[in-house]
Amino acid sequence: MIAPEDCETMAEVRAGVDSVDLEIVALLAVRFRLMTAAARIKQDRGTVRDEGRKALVIANAKVAAARAGVPPELVGELWERLVEGSIAYEFDRWDDHRA
Question: How far apart (Å, rounded) are the C-alpha atoms in residues 23 and 75?
Fold first, then answer.
């Protein structure tokens, strides 16, 4: 992939964006496999939702975003949705493991 600073055409920019999007999806797949592992490990369904952990994950993402020069509030919003979706997914996997 060409470095963003070296892009000279919109085709190069779009190819870079598409490549990054594929990497993001691959990382999300790993994250959701970790949610499956958490569902398998947790013995109590009530521990699937952990508001303290959720707040910490979102705060950490916002700090990392600020350090990377990415808008932290936008990242916070994205992570809110990601974490809520992950919790819902983990609840489903928890139920599946015990069905």
Answer: 17
